[in-house]
Each structure stands twice: as structure tokens, then as C-alpha cells.
């Protein structure tokens, strides 16, 4: 199976899903696993896993798809990778992404853009573009991505696969290269929702190396009747054709006799400015370690346009004299957004909504930074709040997949995952 998949990856090189494949290393590891009788009983035995290029895997180039780190070969495994290996899984390769996870299209990688396997003239979405594309093209069994403002859910939606962003603190970030550490979570990209639940059980849990993690009991597959919320503002900002697909998905829940409640979230306009202000400040601070002394290049000297924009603006708004004007205001707005979300969710189990308000643009089509940020309007809320959010395919428009987003309350990941399973 390993050889067959390595061949398939080679054949599908034009998708540009992988940016580091080490055949010998993989074959050697496969042989070792095959001889290990204990490994054969483990849940991930025989599974091939693709990993986003910002999650450390020992012996691979973990470049964050940036020239800055092109020579960085990781000396260690992130906690999630340790857990995957302990459970018998085999890492098949490292996937392409937007540079330092800054983007929603998969086009800003130093290694060139990823193609959407389901609609090859379109962007695959980002920033976990290679991970979603690898799952969509069946170049692995499942993949890991990271989600700061939608980077698992957006490409899952555009590529027609399942993606899940856990509640903040459920999965350890140890070994993940930060974009914005108060938002970042690692999560699975899979072929179906049940796989997502099972992988979550393996990668979740408290980790001494990440003090923001918590223990949460194992997720079980169980049917229930969720009380479903539909948020007027989320639907209003979305293209009509996508909205129609979501409305059909809502019908599926109606048919399961779920109660459907119309909700309102008045502060949606605040979501993107708040998210990006905090993102710039946290990203700026995270990039200070790429100063040219430790990893080879100084980030400002070699990075792309979007990364440079964030560092430049981040450095200005991080200055003390401006913090009251921007950063502190953003933190206040974040609290407001959280409070209102919790209020809205009070008697609700899940919210159904579109994932991305627009269809993906054509690969290479010029769009402005603001247009790029606008793709994120429906995904950043879960990160601002720390809430769980998953995506399941719910149809196609002119052969372009569309994903239904299901969000829940913080730490009610199990409810979201089960709603995803029930919808499928
Ligand atoms: N598009 C968003 C950003 O550029 C989200 C990125 C992400 O989730 N990593 O910040």
C-alpha cells in the first residue's frame, strides 16, 4: 500500500499537494511497522498520514512553505505526531500551505500554489491547501492541518472533504509553528466525519508541553437530536447559490425532527477587523525568532508579500503608544464577540452555516488582500471564541464543492462531531 500511494503522489505531482516526500524514510518505517506485532493491533496501523508543513515531524523539512525555513530539518516530533506514531500511524509526507499559514487560497507558498483536485482551475482554499488536496485526491488516508481563522475548514469546503477545528485547548500546539497562538489549533482533515472523531480521540488531551491544553473525555459516536440555530447575518453575507445548498442541508436536520431556531449575531461586522488586528500582533511577535541567526534567513528578507504586510503592520500596532488604539480595542471587541456568541448559543446545541461566503476564485486570478480576508468572515468567529467547528461536504455548484459548517459551544466538540456524522 505504501508503495502504491508513493507512486500515486508522484503521478499527481501537478496538484502540488506535497512539498517534502522522503521515500526511503517512509519505506524503512513501513518495514519496521510490519515487523512490529504490537503495532498491528493499534488503531492507526496501516494508515498513511499527510502533515501540514508547520507541524514538526522529525527528519522532515518543516518550512511553513517559506524560504525563511527552507533549510530547517526538524529534530523532533510535535505532540500530535508523537501520538500518531504511538498509535501505529505512518507519516507519508509533508504538505503544501500558504506561507506561514497566512492566506485563504493556497497560492502564497514559496513552493508554488496547490491545485484543487476537484476543480483544477480553482484555488483549493487555504492555508492547509496541500492537506485538503491530498485527502481529496486520495493521496493519503487522512491529513493534519492547522486552523487559526479557518485554515482547516476553508480548504476542506473547497476540496469537498471533511475538516474539524477543535475547541481551543483540546489539542496540543506543542511543535506547531505559531501563526497567532491564541487562535491556532491543529485538527484532522478526513474523508468522512467518523474518521475525524476517531482521530480526535487520538490527538486530543492534556499535554504538559502546552499549558493551554485540557483533558476532555473520549468522544463517542452517538445519535442525538441537536437543537439547531441558523444565524441570519451568516446567511445574509453569503452568495445565493451557496445559501441554497445550506438551506437544503438545514432540511436534512428538519427531517431528523430537529428543532430549528432563527438567531441573530449583530456583531459580525467586528469579526474580521478584530481577528486580523490580533493576528498581526501575535504573528509579528512569533516571527521575531526568524532573525537570520537561528534558521538561516531573516524573515523580512525572503518572505512573500502577505507575510511582509503582517509583519510591517504588526510591528506598528504593537508599539506601546498605539496599543490602546488598536490591540487593546481588539481584545475588548474579542470579549464582546465571545459574550454575544455564548448568549446566542445559550439554548442551542449547534449552528449550521456556510463555511465560505463565496465560491473559490480561479487559480492565479488577482484579488485584493481585503477580498482574501473576506473569505474568512464565517470561520474566524470559532477561533475568536475558542469554539469547535467542523465542515462536511453538502453539494456542488458547477462541480465546485461546497461545505456545510457546524459550530458548537467551547468543549462541546463531541456534539459537533456527531452532528457531522449524522448529516453525512
Ligand atoms: N486566512 C486566515 C489568515 O490568513 C486564516 C489562516 C489560518 O487559519 N491559518 O489569517
From TrEMBL:
<keyword id="KW-0436">Ligase</keyword>
<dbReference type="InterPro" id="IPR000120">
    <property type="entry name" value="Amidase"/>
</dbReference>
<keyword id="KW-0648">Protein biosynthesis</keyword>
<dbReference type="InterPro" id="IPR036928">
    <property type="entry name" value="AS_sf"/>
</dbReference>
<dbReference type="InterPro" id="IPR020556">
    <property type="entry name" value="Amidase_CS"/>
</dbReference>
<feature type="active site" description="Charge relay system">
    <location>
        <position position="127"/>
    </location>
</feature>
<protein>
    <recommendedName>
        <fullName>Glutamyl-tRNA(Gln) amidotransferase subunit A</fullName>
        <ecNumber>6.3.5.7</ecNumber>
    </recommendedName>
</protein>
<keyword id="KW-0547">Nucleotide-binding</keyword>
<feature type="active site" description="Charge relay system">
    <location>
        <position position="52"/>
    </location>
</feature>
<comment type="subunit">
    <text>Heterotrimer of A, B and C subunits.</text>
</comment>
<comment type="function">
    <text>Allows the formation of correctly charged Gln-tRNA(Gln) through the transamidation of misacylated Glu-tRNA(Gln) in organisms which lack glutaminyl-tRNA synthetase. The reaction takes place in the presence of glutamine and ATP through an activated gamma-phospho-Glu-tRNA(Gln).</text>
</comment>
<dbReference type="GO" id="GO:0050567">
    <property type="term" value="F:glutaminyl-tRNA synthase (glutamine-hydrolyzing) activity"/>
</dbReference>
<dbReference type="GO" id="GO:0016740">
    <property type="term" value="F:transferase activity"/>
</dbReference>
<dbReference type="GO" id="GO:0005524">
    <property type="term" value="F:ATP binding"/>
</dbReference>
<dbReference type="InterPro" id="IPR023631">
    <property type="entry name" value="Amidase_dom"/>
</dbReference>
<dbReference type="GO" id="GO:0006412">
    <property type="term" value="P:translation"/>
</dbReference>
<comment type="similarity">
    <text>Belongs to the amidase family. GatA subfamily.</text>
</comment>
<dbReference type="Pfam" id="PF01425">
    <property type="entry name" value="Amidase"/>
</dbReference>
<feature type="active site" description="Acyl-ester intermediate">
    <location>
        <position position="151"/>
    </location>
</feature>
<dbReference type="InterPro" id="IPR004412">
    <property type="entry name" value="GatA"/>
</dbReference>
<feature type="domain" description="Amidase">
    <location>
        <begin position="1"/>
        <end position="417"/>
    </location>
</feature>
<keyword id="KW-0067">ATP-binding</keyword>
<dbReference type="GO" id="GO:0030956">
    <property type="term" value="C:glutamyl-tRNA(Gln) amidotransferase complex"/>
</dbReference>
<keyword id="KW-0808">Transferase</keyword>
Amino acid at each position: 500500500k505504501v508503495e502504491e500511494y508513493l507512486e500515486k503522489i508522484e503521478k499527481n505531482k501537478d496538484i502540488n499537494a506535497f512539498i517534502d516526500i522522503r521515500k526511503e524514510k517512509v519505506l524503512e518505517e513501513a518495514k519496521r511497522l510490519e515487523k512490529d506485532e504490537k503495532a498491528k493491533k493499534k488503531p492507526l496501523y496501516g494508515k498513511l498520514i499527510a502533515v501540514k508543513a508547520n507541524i514538526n515531524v522529525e527528519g522532515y523539512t518543516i518550512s511553513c512553505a517559506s524560504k525563511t525555513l527552507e533549510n530547517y530539518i526538524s529534530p523532533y516530533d510535535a505532540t500530535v505526531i508523537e501520538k500518531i506514531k504511538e498509535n501505529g500511524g505512518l507519516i507519508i509526507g509533508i504538505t503544501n500551505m500558504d506561507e506561514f499559514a497566512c492566506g485563504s487560497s493556497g497560492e502564497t507558498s514559496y513552493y508554488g500554489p496547490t491545485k484543487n483536485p476537484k476543480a483544477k482551475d480553482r484555488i483549493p482554499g487555504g492555508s492547509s491547501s496541500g492537506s485538503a488536496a491530498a485527502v481529496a485526491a486520495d493521496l493519503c488516508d487522512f491529513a493534519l492541518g492547522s486552523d487559526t481563522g479557518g485554515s482547516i475548514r476553508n480548504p476542506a469546503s473547497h476540496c469537498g472533504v471533511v475538516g474539524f477545528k477543535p475547541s481551543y485547548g483540546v489539542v496540543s500546539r506543542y511543535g506547531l509553528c505559531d501563526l497567532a497562538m491564541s487562535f491556532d489549533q491543529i485538527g484532522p482533515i478526513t474523508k468522512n466525519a467518523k474518521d475525524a472523531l476517531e482521530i480526535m480521540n487520538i490527538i486530543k488531551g492534556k499535554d504538559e508541553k502546552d499549558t493551554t491544553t485540557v483533558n476532555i473525555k473520549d468522544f463517542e459516536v452517538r445519535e442525538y437530536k441537536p437543537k439547531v440555530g441558523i444565524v441570519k447575518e451568516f446567511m445574509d453575507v453569503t452568495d445565493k447559490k451557496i445559501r441554497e445548498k445550506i438551506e437544503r442541508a438545514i432540511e436534512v436536520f428538519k427531517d431528523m425532527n430537529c428543532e430549528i431556531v432563527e438567531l441573530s449575531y449583530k456583531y459580525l461586522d467586528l469579526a474580521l477587523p478584530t481577528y486580523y488586528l490580533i493576528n498581526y500582533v501575535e504573528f509579528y511577535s512569533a516571527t521575531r525568532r526568524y532573525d537570520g541567526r537561528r534558521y538561516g534567513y531573516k524573515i523580512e528578507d525572503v518572505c512573500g508579500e502577505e507575510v511582509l504586510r503582517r509583519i510591517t503592520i504588526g510591528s506598528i500596532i504593537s508599539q506601546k503608544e498605539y496599543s490602546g488604539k488598536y490591540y487593546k480595542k481588539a481584545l475588548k471587541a474579542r470579549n464582546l464577540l465571545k459574550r454575544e456568541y455564548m448568549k446566542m448559543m445559550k439554548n442551542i446545541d449547534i449552528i449550521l452555516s456556510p463555511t465560505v461566503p463565496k465560491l473559490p476564485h480561479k487559480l492565479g486570478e488577482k484579488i485584493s488582500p481585503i477580498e482574501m480576508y473576506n473569505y474568512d468572515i464565517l470561520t474566524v468567529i470559532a477561533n475568536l471564541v475558542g469554539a469547535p467547528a467542523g465542515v462536511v461536504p453538502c453539494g456542488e455548484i458547477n462541480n465546485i464543492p461546497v461545505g456545510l459548517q457546524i459550530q458548537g459551544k467551547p468543549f462541546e466538540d463531541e456534539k459537533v462531531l456527531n452532528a457531522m456524522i449524522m448529516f453525512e
